[in-house]
Fold this sequence. Notes:
By secondary structure, the protein is mainly alpha-helical. It is built from four helices and no strands.
Amino acid sequence: MRFVCFSCILLIAFSCANETSNKNSGKLIFENNCVSCHGLKGDLQVSGASDLTSSDLDKKQVINVISKGRNNMKPYKGILSDSQIDAVANYVFKLRSN
Length: 98
């Protein structure tokens, strides 16, 4: 009985930790891959990078740009997993000023 209770507690703890890391993963991936051109706030515009704070792309379009690249931006498909690309796309929407 104690083993079952302990297993349930571990399962809940790992689920909560994973959920927290998923919420932050878009930001961390963005910080590790995108800030040199887009900046921390998404508005740096180095090397022709778009100002993400004023972007009007929908989520599908953002995922497409991240996956396939655009202008000087390299494609991240094959570098990032689909779930990581999705997390970055979600984070990009948080940078919008509108």
